[in-house]
Design goal:
- The chain is an alpha/beta fold and about 450 residues long.
- The protein has 2 domains: about 1-210 and about 405-459, Ribonuclease Z/Hydroxyacylglutathione hydrolase-like (Metallo-beta-lactamase, Chain A), CATH 3.60.15.10; about 220-400, Rossmann fold (3-Layer(aba) Sandwich), CATH 3.40.50.
- Helices cover about 35% and strands about 20% of the residues.
- It has helices at about 40-45, 65, 70-75, 85-115, 130, 220-235, 250-260, 275-285, 295-300, 305-310, 315-320, 345-350, 370-375, 405-415, 430-445, and strands at about 1-5, 15-20, 25-30, 55-60, 80-85, 140, 145-150, 155-160, 165-175, 175-180, 205, 240, 270-275, 310-315, 330-335, 360, 380-385, 385-390, 395, 420-425, 455-459.
- Helix 4 (about 85-115) runs antiparallel to helix 8 (about 275-285).
- It starts with a strand and ends with a strand.
- The structure holds zinc ion.
């Protein structure tokens, strides 16, 4: 049996593993490369994958960097089943539709530029039509259910605590147990259950996003958010929160509502300027069965409906534009989380140059994104080809991460690692990945494998 790394090897995007036994080929995740330049070609390049020769796909969770190339796979001939939890299925629909819209928009814009220069039309990576062909292939799989996804390959998904519906995968094939961590959440996130410990594995594919550090505690992070919002209210600031639409946006609403409910900050307008975050919030309501005990009890009391009364959800572009004229204090939550697209760009363009503006980063900012430029202190940035001075106060709150920190990763891996376990570190940039490898050497006396894209792990 062999497993080829299709991506997320030495970086955090493009997750995908091609598992090949002597009888079948199964893909675990098939995500998009994001954040760096010249990724379009990398996204189009399917490497060793022949779509019509793949028997099945199994998904850890819905995020674009884990599902984003499925429409391409289907467009190129894949017709097998795609196994996903029901929540993953619904979040994926949302994410892929949004992605196709962005691809089509980008291609149309690049085509206009290309035509003026006498060059050829630019084709989108995939279209909304391609995305519509993915849904009929999805087969729902519940947590803790054992299912043969292709001849001789059995999987079980167990709670990963990363976003609603996320799972880690235990796979049995050719007499081996392989564990794919997928993205693992930290303990104690609102709404989500904590990650379930993995079984003992022959080979463990472990994410390493934060392999070099522990996050600040959630309590300390919420306390910092409290301070920021208190000052913002006092100074009547506009607070921009670039946020992923799924998971992080709902978490921010949760914490803000909690601060208001507790009387820590006065009631003030909160805008969610993202059709996708609005739809995701609705899906949170629908999948309350996946909530942890605390959120289930709040839901039973009707607390979430009560909290959401203070939130204005903006769907149309006109409503979004009108936000340019509002007075503070106000919070605007908008995508994209790394500021590499979406409505947040307009708000940044209109507000970054003002000293009274506050920008709060609540998620990971990968290399090459506008978000990374802002958190690392750039004084001038380019937005829509315009140079914008950065005078706003920029805060980075690392403690909201949906990824486990180093200590939690090691604790989780402890259950999977036994005598002879091979550990392969993925889904991390070089520095955190190397640091986690060092920690694994110290704690388990194992030399972890740090593969590059395209590498093959023979089992
Ligand atoms: Zn993820």
């Amino acid at each position: 049996m062999r497993i080829t790394l299709c991506g997320a090897a030495g970086e955090v995007t493009g997750s995908g593993y091609l598992v090949e036994t002597d009888r079948v080929r199964v893909l675990v995740d098939f995500g998009m490369f994001q954040g760096r330049r010249a990724t379009d070609q990398r996204n189009r390049d399917l490497g060793p994958i022949e779509p019509n020769a793949v028997h099945a796909v199994v998904l850890t969770h819905a995020h674009l960097d884990h599902t984003g190339r499925l429409p391409l796979l289907v467009a190129k001939g894949f017709r097998g089943p795609i196994f996903a939890t029901p929540a993953t299925e619904e979040f994926m629909d949302l994410i892929l539709a949004d992605s196709a819209e962005i691809q089509e928009g980008d291609a149309a814009r690049l085509t206009r530029v290309a035509r003026r220069a006498g060059r050829r039309t630019v084709e989108p990576l995939y279209t909304r039509d391609d995305v519509r062909r993915v849904a009929p292939l999805v087969r729902r799989i519940g947590y803790e259910e054992r299912r043969e996804v292709a001849k001789g390959v059995t999987v079980r998904l167990f709670e990963a605590g990363h976003i609603l519906g996320s799972g880690s995968i235990e796979m049995h094939a050719a007499g081996k147990t392989i564990v794919f961590s997928g993205d693992i959440g930290p303990n104690g996130l609102p709404f989500l259950r904590d990650p379930v410990r993995p079984p003992r594995a022959d080979t463990l594919f472990l994410e390493s996003t934060y392999g070099d550090r522990d996050h600040r505690s959630l309590d300390a992070t919420v306390a910092e958010l409290h301070e920021i919002l208190e000052r913002a209210v006092r100074e009547k600031s506009i607070v921009l929160i670039p946020s992923f639409a799924i998971g992080r946006a709902q978490q921010m609403l949760f914490h803000i509502a909690e601060l208001v409910r507790g009387g820590h900050i006065p009631d003030f307008p909160v805008y969610v300027d993202s059709p996708m975050a609005i739809e995701a919030t609705r899906l949170y309501g629908k999948h309350q069965g996946l909530f942890d005990a605390e959120a289930r009890s709040l839901a039973r009391r009707g607390q979430f409906q009560e909290d959401l009364k203070n939130v204005r959800f903006l769907t149309t572009a006109d409503e979004s534009r009108r936000l340019n004229e509002i007075d503070g204090p106000a919070v605007v939550i908008a995508g994209s989380g790394m500021c590499n697209g979406g409505r947040i760009l307009h708000h940044l363009k209109h507000h970054l140059w003002r000293e009274e503006t506050v920008v709060v980063f609540v998620g990971y900012q990968s290399e090459g994104t506008l978000g990374r430029a802002l958190v690392t202190g750039s004084k001038v940035v380019a937005i829509y080809g315009e140079r914008i001075r950065v005078a706003a106060r920029i805060h980075t709150l690392g403690g909201f991460s949906a990824h486990a920190g180093r200590t939690e990763l090691l604790g989780w891996a402890d259950a999977a690692i036994g005598a002879g376990t091979r550990v392969v570190l993925t889904h991390g940039e070089d520095k955190p990945r190397a640091a986690l490898a060092e920690a694994i050497r110290e704690r388990f006396r194992i030399d972890a494998t740090l593969p590059a894209r395209g590498d093959v792990i023979e089992l």
